[in-house]
């Protein structure tokens, strides 16, 4: 009876079959290198790094612009103390005035009430001083009972109502009286030692003299009307 022996093994990686010399094992297949894909990957990494660097640089770049240091009421002239430098990043939605134009801004008039901390734009300014053509600026002195307790702000629309010496409103069309006059508040001063508060208002030029005469006699009451 013939015995079958298992094949002998030689050096690692070689097999001996039936006493023959060990057969060499085939090396593993080599992977193909694709230079185009490798170059594309490198290029994408480089472009990503450059994009991140550009974005960081753009976000960190700021320019000096003009900001409002304190509230400036509508109709008031801009002074140097009203302006302060601020640095902001460029943005298409923002159009502030460069700080280098500061001297051009001083002396202009606020076209709206400028709030503290806001960036100053050209649209918020006007070169037209008060009063504008066709209007007159009149100071109206009123007591506490001749105006609302609510603070008057620049730009408020009001009616100047004539009153008689006893405090009653005058009827339109009577001798020496006229009807209510539309006006716009420019500034409201603090109460004086006599208890009167002077309110600067803009009125039509045709109404200016009559309003001034009645205001000097203390015969005007102020009524605030609803804005549009």
From TrEMBL:
Transmembrane segment boundaries: 36-56
Coiled-coil intervals, chain numbering: none
Keywords: Membrane, Transmembrane, Transmembrane helix
Superkingdom of the source species: Bacteria
InterPro entries documented for this protein: SAF
SMART domains assigned: SAF
Electron transport keyword on record: no
Disordered: annotated segments: 1-30
Residues covered by the SAF domain: 63-126
Protein name: SAF domain-containing protein
Source species: Geodermatophilus dictyosporus
């Amino acid at each position: 009876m013939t015995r079958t022996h298992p094949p002998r093994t030689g050096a690692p990686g070689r097999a001996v079959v039936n006493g023959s010399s060990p057969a060499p094992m085939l090396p593993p297949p080599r992977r193909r290198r694709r230079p185009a894909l490798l170059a594309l990957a490198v290029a994408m990494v480089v472009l990503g790094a450059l994009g991140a660097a550009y974005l960081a640089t753009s976000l960190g770049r700021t320019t000096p612009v003009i900001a409002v240091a304190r509230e400036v009421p509508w109709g008031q002239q801009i002074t140097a103390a009203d302006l302060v430098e601020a640095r902001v990043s460029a943005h298409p939605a923002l159009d502030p005035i460069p700080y280098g134009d500061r001297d051009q801004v001083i002396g202009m008039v606020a076209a709206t009430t400028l709030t503290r901390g806001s960036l100053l734009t050209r649209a918020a300014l006007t070169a037209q001083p008060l009063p504008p053509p066709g209007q007159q600026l009149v100071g109206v002195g009123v007591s506490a009972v001749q105006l609302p307790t609510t603070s008057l702000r620049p730009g408020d629309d009001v009616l100047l109502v004539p009153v008689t010496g006893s405090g009653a409103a005058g009827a339109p069309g009577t001798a020496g009286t006229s009807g209510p006059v539309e006006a716009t508040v420019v500034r409201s001063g603090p109460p004086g030692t006599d208890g009167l508060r002077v309110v600067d208002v803009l009125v039509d030029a045709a109404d200016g003299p009559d309003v001034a005469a009645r205001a000097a006699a203390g015969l005007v009451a102020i009524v605030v009307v609803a804005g549009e």
